[in-house]
Amino acid sequence: MQSTELNTKQLEILKETLPQSTRFGVLWNPSTPSHQLGLPATESAGETLGITLIPVPARTAEEFDAGLTTMAREHVGGFLDLASPLTYSERFRLAELALKHRLPGMFGIRANVEAGGLMSYAADIIDLHRRAAAYIDKILKGANPADLPVEQASKFEFVINLKTANALELTIPPSILARADEVIE
Fold first, then answer.
1. Fewest C-beta atoms under 10 Å: which of 39, 114, 121, 150?
2. Coil, strand or helix: which one is 56?
């Protein structure tokens, strides 16, 4: 799903949403293999955007509170969650802690926003499932899986949770709202 490119785009949107902020946290999981590439790519994007990133590792859900406490203590304007199975499965807890620490978050999975996170920019999971079904159909009809081309996500969605923005007393710029595929009110 092009995670390193997505992390860069997510950081760009976060910066556009919070233009006065020059410091952002990055919640990442050292146990998630894709984060070994995702974190350096995100740090490089931060340099390009002229922002300071505060990477905070969290291997377990129990480490979320300490991680977000560190971010708040470092006076970050918001944080980027590098999507992982952990932050997906613990999305309600993470959203609750982000509100507790008054930290706007950008997520790589729509479900995190539905759980109370501020916003996400991610591949459209429903579209990915439809495309996977087409692959399965081809294989069941006799296609050799090795002969099928690798496809990358081509449909993405940007979701904003205005309830969370209001709870954080955050005004989302109209230019950002206009780009959203869905706004949760």
1. 150
2. strand
Domain range for 144 is 125-154
Query: For residue range 42-79, what is the model confidence (pLDDT) as tens digits?
Result: 998 899 999 999 999 999 999 999 999 999 999 999 99
How many C-beta atoms surround the C-beta of residue 89 within 10 A?
A: 12
For residues 59 and 132, membership in a common domain is answered with: no
Rounded alpha-carbon distances, angstroms, from residue 160 to 67, 86, 132, 172: 23, 21, 27, 9
Question: Is residue 114 classed as helix, strand or coil in its secondary structure?
Answer: helix
What whole-number distance in Å separates Cα of residue 137 and Cα of residue 59?
Answer: 37
Whether residue 53 contacts residue 102, with contact meaning beta carbons closer than 8 Å, is answered with no
Same domain, 54 and 74: yes
- Whole-prediction pTM: 0.86
Q: What is the per-residue pLDDT across 1-39, written as a single tens digit (0 to 9) for each?
A: 445 678 889 999 999 999 999 999 999 999 888 887 788
